[in-house]
Amino acid sequence: MSSHSRNNGGIVVVSYKRRMLVQLLASAAIASPAVAQTGTPPDPVAAAPSGTGQTDAPQNSSTTDGDIIVTAQKRDENIQNVPISIQAIGTRRLDQLNVSNFNEYTQLLPSVAFQSTQPGVTTVYMRGVASGGDGNHSGSLPSVGTYLDEQPVTTIGGTLDIHIYDVARIESLAGPQGTLYGASSEAGTIRIITNKPDTAAFYGRVDGEVNSVHSGGIGYSTEGMLNIPISERAALRVVGFYQRDAGFIDNVPGTRSFLPQPGGITVDNDQFVEKDYNDTETYGGRAALKIDLDDNWTATPTLLYQEQRSHGSYAFDPRVGDLQLQHFYPEYRKDRFAQAALTIEGQLGNWDVTYAGAYLDRRAEQSTDYTDYSEAYDSLYSSVGGLAGYFYYQDAAGNTIDPRQRVIGRDHFKKTSQELRVASPADQPFRIVAGGFYQRQSNLIFQDYQIPNLGPDVSVNGYPGTLWLTRQHRVDKDYAVFGEASYDLTPTLTLTAGGRAFIYDNSLVGFFGFGRNPGIDPDDGRPYSATPFNAAGSSQTGVAGCYLAGGGTLRDAYRNGGDTTAFLPNDDVGAIPCTNLGVVKGGKVVPKRADGQGVTYRFNATWKPTDLLLLYATWSKGFRPGGINRRGDVGDYDADFLTNYELGWKTTWLDGRLRVNGAVYQQNWDQFQFSFLGENSFTVIQNGPDARIRGIEMDANLGVGPLSLTASGSYTDAKTRTDLCRSVTCLNTDGEDVVTPAGERLPITPRFKLSGTVRYTVPIGAAKAYLQGLVAHQSSAASDIRQRVLETGTGRLANPAAEIGRLPAYTTANLALGAEWGKYTLELFARNLWDERGQIARFVQCGSCYQRPYAVPITPRTIGLRLGAKF
Question: What pTM was computed for the model?
Fold first, then answer.
């Protein structure tokens, strides 16, 4: 069935957590005057010792982020000395731009593109490495890795939308980072570095916001931070936040009619009609404890909890109206994740040693309207009376029922990661970083396609009312050893070589498909012989494919006159009718496996003739593991690889007031993994063609007195080099087997992406007033790569790229007017100033649902007021 990239899990009672969060924020606000009476505390940034990650915020509010210290190469380095393409957004700029979520900071990163159907359901791409549609809960692993401090937080189901507050910086590392960061950093890595506990002083801050969305509702947020020294060697830092994003999509009245006509079924959505349908609550907290074990060793355990509750849909149906749709079942998403992490840093002799470990648990639950599927297939089978004439959508008494569907989905992700590395002294001409890495991540997948009142005999066995069930357990394991060595041939010329040897071992087991009527046909005499077999009349998919004793399937036994009752057990999935995805071994069904091994590499030459100029050349390779299709009758897919050739420069001008950095590159993406909705609208992943990506990216920062300017931009030319076909190998290059011919642009990534900010600060009495503006532009892009698809059931050749529609070009602007005086800030702002209807994704609900393409817009014009205080 449909490829819902919505990751779904358990419901959590939140009243207690919410009270604790409110108490934390209230204590921060109450503490402010009490602390003020004891004297003026040190500025949190100025008080930060070197190496804490907080030194990147200068004291002059009119400048940009100053000399940013990054750890992209597993060492503390000035960003201007790092020979890779990296953009970093520091503490002060994050605060100035009121960045709180993924969508807001990625518009500032020129190499980053993404697809998002709603908050928490996002797939990230870098430098055009995008085939589209691979963010499924059991699809390809992401091609861009995401880290929170030292720990990877990339999950099988996509990117965690971590709330951004009290963050030291966000680093965007473009290009393969396979040597130091591994499998899910094929195209790049995004690193979120939090501010660390500080033993120097007690201080904190609290911020609040209220806003109004044009054609929508009212939103608000409150955030707080406390830094609490416990002793000379220990400190605690606690962050709490609550945010409500107002809705702006309207679910308007509508009807759907199903064949035959006359005499068919007509339904309406009156009970679900609602204005501002799509609101979201996000709340949670973060705590870090820094303990100096002695003068050389520090341990930092951290805890993170975040919960997000969304209602409605974040997409609209252009056929219905601007910011409007017509849906017929409840829609919601509940996504919560918790992480416990530990970082230990120290020295053995003069070598740095770092251990980083984490355990992440993410649960998501979602309800999605799937009426479009019923509408589309009713039309596809119109020549035989639609769904009523072709299928068996009947209640227990055999009466035809309302064929509308909804999808209930749950995903339970778990992730454990461990890394141990050493680094030689950074001041020596020969330097190495080396270590080992282990990761295990899993997902318990549950997708239940429901038709209310569907009879038990035509439902999935044990799930009355379920047309189709997917319940599977996926486990991905990664093992690696890595190292990089740099040698200064001369004081200005450095050569670097690195490699990563990896092993991946992925497995999948479970059930997918329709049920099987357990009744007995009198002429046969065996269970599971009665007809109809299920609501779809299918004799092949689902329970029919489950394994029996002896290794055959129920379908084989039914056709060959064998026993139809001896289903084999499995111990990995839970309550399923039987197992049809796996391997028969030792009298039971064990997981199907896909594994592999290999080496990625990086070679770099850096020339730094002066402190103001750095030039570099890089040859690097990244990879993404292969895997198993959750539709068991489709073959496995192989790993894909990305080879990068890059020339870059980093320059400083005007006595350090101006920085201009950039890079040009070519990347070869070989047999890239491609996901699409195949037969029965079920996600299929296969290896596609080769692609070639060329581009240039630049960023500049200028600070002149009270004026600061930043600008960044990218040009990306990403094209296929060979034909994309219905199978891995093109069988008929002149016919319908070719889905997309060679030379076509890859989807999602715009050819041009530009952004710029300006901030002017002027003293007014004891205050510093400022005016700030941001403009961002991106050109159009295809939403799908496919141009010729043979539609299931009709033989019609569809053109998904054209029928789903392009992502149009758009330009947005933000404006802010505010003031800082002492420890307080006040700001009036407007985001999306001219209410541009930019689109960040387009999609259809099923493989044949081209009658209703949806568009996911950026948030309409939002005007608000923000207040903040430090103490």
Answer: 0.89
